[in-house]
Amino acid sequence: MDKKWVITTVALALSLTFIQGSQAADDDELLFSEPQPASAPRFKMDAPQSEVKEAAVMGQAAEKDSAYHRFAREPGSTQKFQQAKEKESIADALAAPADYRQMAQKSVSETGSDEGLAAAQGAQSDEGPRTVNAPSVRRMQDIPPRAAAMAKPMQSTAAIHTWFQKMVGIALNHSPEVRAALSDMEASSWGVKQVQGQRYPQVTVGTSAPFGSFGNGASTRNNNSLSDTSVSVTVNTTVFDWGRISAELDSAREGLNAAALAVKEIREQVASSTMAELLNLSRYQESVKVAQAYVNRMQKLVTMLSGIASVDKGRASELVQARARLLSAQAQQEQLQHQFDNTRIKLVRLMGVEPGLPPALRWNGDLIALNTALSALHDHPTLKRGEAEIRSADAQAESIRAAGLPKVDWVVQKSTSKDQYGDEDAWYTGLNVQWSAFSGGSERAQRQAALAKMRSAQEKVQVSRYELEYQIRNMVETRDSSLQRADNYVRLSAETDRVRDMFYRQWYHLGTRTLLDVLSAESDHFNNQISAINNRYDGYTSNVSVMYNAAILLNWLVKQPGMKSRGQGF
Fold it and tell me: Where is the secretion signal located (predicted)?
């Protein structure tokens, strides 16, 4: 009698545990996907022998949960909470994944084991579920894209060129640096005109109005009053000056050439800065979207745990962890938003207007080869400007040398002043020779200074060449490495997306993961997404730097098919 009573009691307890365990399974809903429909098959899978320990832990968890249902609260409270949350989140939930039967059949079909298939099908016996009903983990191609990645990126090369050309044209038309460089070039052009004028006859006109004469000396009765006012005219034409004016003219022309090349440098710099900031704006725009999706996931998790903790005080620590991670996600989002706003401010400084939001770019074309960039250095404005400065300094030194030699001028002059006899001076014409025979060494010092300036310019050109070659090689390496890392991070993000989904299900349905594992997986997935974006845009920015250091950026913008440079500031 006692044995029969014990068996009856044990059977009743097991039945009650089975019923409440099934109800707990019905309570489970996924945070990041839609709940399974009512008609979805429930797959009951026997635990493999290698997972006996995991099955034992799951059994203990089910037993504790049943006891809690019996003695702590009314059954089905979690189900009521999940049903209420389901109505709020059903609109944006993802599609329900495939069930475990498909995974088991796929696994058996790959191994070719008929016995394994029979064992998987036999798992749906009437012995009761060994595990709770959890949807299968989807393969990478089965995972739909997230909302942050749903926007179609701009991939057309012509569209990207057109957009960049429009923005850079606005920046060039607005840039005060370009206008200042143009003013410097204008000043240099007037300097050339000034030197050219020395080749023409120099006409000097003067007048003299005497008030009186005093002191000892010859009589000056004809220059004692304002009525004796006289006018003088002098025409001085350089006949021979050992090439002084020609050297000065060469120096001025080289200075004008250097100023024109400086304008091109400034324009390349403005174009590079504008394109780099536009890329950063697109970078931070994508990053903010990813951060917003991360914040939304953390907010949903906090909302869910708030409801659970309200009926299960023992899980309050999980709510604290989720809130801490939510605050961290919000701080990261705010930091990215701050960088986005700062970039917009920089673009207003560069363009003078509020920039339009850029599209999501996929700019994998137009990668400049290393040899192409290096071969363009012979036309680089920085190097050519340095060479022009060398020639200008050399011509200046030659001009100083010629100025120390005798100079022959043809002079024509006439004055209306009268001598003591009342006669005017006649017209005079002749050759004048002038020679600065001794100047205390100042002339030699001036020439040596010009030669030293020329040698300095030569060294600067060499340094600039080395630096540009280094920058081009470095940027090409950085670009290729960044784009490769971006591809790796994209694949890694897809895998960590699956990992965080698995961890969540293992925590929520099986209890084999802690909430900290779930939060860490979410954080890793977010960081990998941000790293993929940053490396991709680092590659784009490095490609722009390659074109800038090779001084082919403006040519790349202008020479695209179907583009017009007129009116765009180019």
Answer: 1-24
What contacts 24+ positions apart, CB below 8 Å, involve 261-265? 261/381, 261/382, 261/384, 261/385, 261/388, 262/181, 262/184, 262/185, 262/381, 262/385, 263/178, 263/181, 263/182, 263/184, 263/185, 264/381, 264/551, 264/554, 265/181, 265/381, 265/382, 265/385, 265/551
Give the C-alpha separation, 401 to 413, whole Å.
29
Match 């707990």 to its residue by tokens. Answer: 24
Q: How far apart are CA 305 and CA 153, in angstroms?
A: 36
Distance, CA of 363 to CA of 153 (rounded, Å) = 9
Note the pTM of the prediction, 2 decimals: 0.68
Domain count, the chain: 2
The reply to whether 501 falls in a domain is: yes
* pLDDT number for residue 510: 87
Question: Coil, helix or strand for 413?
Answer: strand
DSSP 40-96: SPPP--PPPGGGHHHHHHHHHHHHHHHHHHHHTS-TTHHHHHHHHHHHHHGGGPPPP
Distances (CA, A) of 4 to 7, 8, 11, 364: 5, 6, 11, 77
- Look up the CATH number of the domain holding residue 392: 1.20.1600.10
Q: Three-state SS for 567?
A: coil
Evaluate whether 511 touches 503 at the Cβ level (below 8 Å).
no
- pLDDT of 16 higher than 60: no
Question: Are the CB atoms for 219 and 196 separated by under 8 Å?
Answer: no
**For residue 208, what is the enclosing H or E element?**
strand 202-208
Q: Is residue 116 part of a domain?
A: yes
Distance CA 190, CA 258 (A): 14
* Whether the predicted pLDDT of 40 surpasses 70: no
**357 within a domain of the structure (yes/no):** yes
Token duo for residue 222: 């004809």
Residue ranges making up the domain that contains 512: 157-558
Looking at the fold, whether 117 and 181 belong to one and the same domain comes out as: no
Distance CA 228, CA 234 (A): 20
What residues contact 230, with CB distance under 8 A and at least 6 apart?
207, 208, 223, 415, 416, 417, 418
- Within 8 A by CB and 6+ apart from 250, the residues are 391, 392, 395
- pLDDT computed for residue 91 by the predictor: 39
Listed residue (320, 349, 254, 259) closest to 519, CA to CA:
320
Task: Spell out the residues 6+ positions from residue 51 whose beta carbon is closer than 8 angstroms to its own.
Answer: none
Residue 142 maps to a domain:
no
Closest CA to 224 of 417, 470, 409, 460: 417
CA 333 to chain centre: 18
Statement to judge: residues 164 and 218 lie in one domain:
yes
The pLDDT value recorded for residue 393 is 93
Q: Count CB-CB contacts under 10 A for residue 303.
A: 16
The residue with tokens 């797959």 is: 43
- Amino acid in position 485: R
123 and 7, same domain (yes or no): yes
- The edge-to-edge listing of strands for the beta sheet with 407-415 is 202-208, 230-240, 407-415, 428-434
Give the span between the Cα atoms of 471 and 476, in whole angstroms: 8
If pLDDT is split at 50, 70 and 90, which confidence band does 327 have?
very high
> Do residues 555 and 373 touch, judged by C-beta distance below 8 A?
no
Contact predicate 348/355, CB 8 Å? yes
